[in-house]
Automatic annotation (TrEMBL):
<keyword id="KW-0521">NADP</keyword>
<keyword id="KW-0560">Oxidoreductase</keyword>
<dbReference type="InterPro" id="IPR002347">
    <property type="entry name" value="SDR_fam"/>
</dbReference>
<dbReference type="InterPro" id="IPR020904">
    <property type="entry name" value="Sc_DH/Rdtase_CS"/>
</dbReference>
<dbReference type="Pfam" id="PF00106">
    <property type="entry name" value="adh_short"/>
</dbReference>
<dbReference type="GO" id="GO:0005737">
    <property type="term" value="C:cytoplasm"/>
</dbReference>
<keyword id="KW-0963">Cytoplasm</keyword>
<dbReference type="GO" id="GO:0004757">
    <property type="term" value="F:sepiapterin reductase (NADP+) activity"/>
</dbReference>
<comment type="similarity">
    <text>Belongs to the short-chain dehydrogenases/reductases (SDR) family.</text>
</comment>
<dbReference type="GO" id="GO:0006729">
    <property type="term" value="P:tetrahydrobiopterin biosynthetic process"/>
</dbReference>
<protein>
    <submittedName>
        <fullName>Benzil reductase ((S)-benzoin forming)</fullName>
        <ecNumber>1.1.1.320</ecNumber>
    </submittedName>
</protein>
<dbReference type="InterPro" id="IPR051721">
    <property type="entry name" value="Biopterin_syn/organic_redct"/>
</dbReference>
Length: 253
């Protein structure tokens, strides 16, 4: 069984990626706060397997237990794992406003979801699968926001920049290890997702880029999550065959 763990698979790119991965011999596990509607039915139709692990990623203290549940799921399946893939997709850009307008609780929740959870989950997951002599992949969904500062998105931009550096460091740590984890950061580009919709609806006084996001949609620059998910899965397959693609750079789909 090939295991694909996707965070934030309840909507957008995460949901479409999980849906397209539901094939025979694939067990897709969604780690998300909300249940991904329709994915269990999709699994029944395609012959894949699907499990939802309910978890609010902003609750950092619960993540070790979440990884315990994940590994118990793998152990209880009765079939050996042929490969393991972790896709960090969950992210939250809202609320869109200046840093000094955020409450301490908002700052903590944003950084937990966008950077602390991916870092901690990566560490815990790698620890638990270290001894498995199978192919392993860790994919971080990043954003051009890591390189381009934007007023009203300081927390999101900072988190994505931090994740990009984590990927580069992890690549150095895992490179050359027997059955090490192949790691990459992927920028999917601009898509028509709930996050984009929230950016278009934000108040221009607190988020000056609102007009840019509206214009991007009106001019047809946004791709569908389904088309991007298809490209992501194809690219992941290429990376599995050609692990030298772990170049330390951000891969743009």
């Amino acid at each position: 069984m090939h295991y694909y763990i996707v965070t934030g698979a309840s909507s957008g790119l995460g949901k479409e990626t999980a849906r397209l991965l539901l094939r025979p011999e694939h067990h897709v596990v969604s780690i998300s706060r909300r249940e991904p509607i329709g994915l269990m039915a999709q699994a029944n139709q395609t012959g894949g397997r699907f499990t939802w692990l309910e978890q609010d990623l902003s609750n950092i203290g619960e993540l070790p237990g979440c990884v315990d549940r994940l590994m118990q799921l793998v152990a209880a399946s009765g079939t050996p794992a042929l490969s393991m893939h972790l896709i960090h997709n969950a992210a939250a850009a809202a609320p869109f406003k200046a840093l000094d307008h955020h409450s301490p609780e908002e700052i903590s929740a944003s950084l937990n979801v966008n950077v602390h959870a991916p870092v901690l989950l990566s560490s815990l997951w790698i620890q638990r699968i270290r001894s498995l002599h199978i192919p392993k992949q860790l994919i971080v969904i990043t954003s051009a926001s890591a390189d381009y500062p934007m007023a009203g998105m300081s927390l999101y931009c900072s988190a994505k920049a931090g994740l990009n550096m984590m990927v580069r460091c992890l690549q150095l740590e895992q490179r050359g290890l027997p059955y090490g984890v192949h790691i990459a950061a992927v920028d999917p580009g601009m898509m028509d997702t709930p996050m984009q919709a929230a950016a278009r609806e934000a108040h221009e006084l607190s988020f000056p880029a609102t007009a840019f996001f509206r214009q991007s949609r009106e001019s047809g620059q946004l791709r569908t999550p389904e088309s991007v998910a298809q490209r992501l899965i194809e690219w992941m397959s290429d990376l599995a065959v050609k692990p030298e693609a772990d170049s330390g750079t951000v891969h743009r789909l």
